[in-house]
Amino acid sequence: MLKRSKQKREMSLSEATSRLISHILKMGQGEIMELLELVEKKNFEKKRKSPRFDYYGEAVYVVKGRAYTGFIKNISSEGVYIETPDMADAGEKIILSFELPDGEHIRVSGTVVRGEGNGFAVSFDRTIDGNLSRLASSPSEPEGPGLFKRGK
């Protein structure tokens, strides 16, 4: 029996777009929302300039002159995600204070870029790359509070 190899033919952008829209029109609302989330997440990940690490530590932050406490979920040299019931609005200026696992104290200012779920993301005004670069060789699984692992 002969094996038939399928050759993929080149498809124009307009044909691909038309086929994609045709598939989307056949989907239910839940499927469309899942697809949108997947596409937006993929595009967001492309924008990230530096690796992020899961981080399990407390942070004190100040927004509009008032101090709050939150829990850092992940961190990169350019920003951080904080879980907290005390939400901050996108565009708000923020000052963060926290410790790295080696005891180094970090104090950095930034801007809240988005709120989601039970927390918000912050973009730092300056990178803290020098403080995180050595963590690339850290264990891949955290063994307790404050330890890092490479995020997705």
Descriptive overview:
- The structure is a single chain.
- The relative contact order is 0.15.
- Strands 1-2-3-6-5-4 form a 6-stranded antiparallel barrel.
- The longest helix is centred in the first third of the chain and has 19 residues, at about 30-45.
- The chain has helices at about 15-25, 30-45, 130; strands at about 50-65, 65-75, 80-85, 95-100, 105-115, 120-125, 150.
- Helices cover about 25% and strands about 35% of the residues.
- The chain is elongated, with a radius of gyration of 21 Å.
- It has 2 domains: about 15-45; about 50-150, predicted glycosyltransferase like domains (Thrombin, subunit H).
- It is built from 3 helices and 7 strands; from the N terminus they run ααββββββαβ.
- Residues about 135-150 have low confidence and may be disordered.
- The termini are far apart.
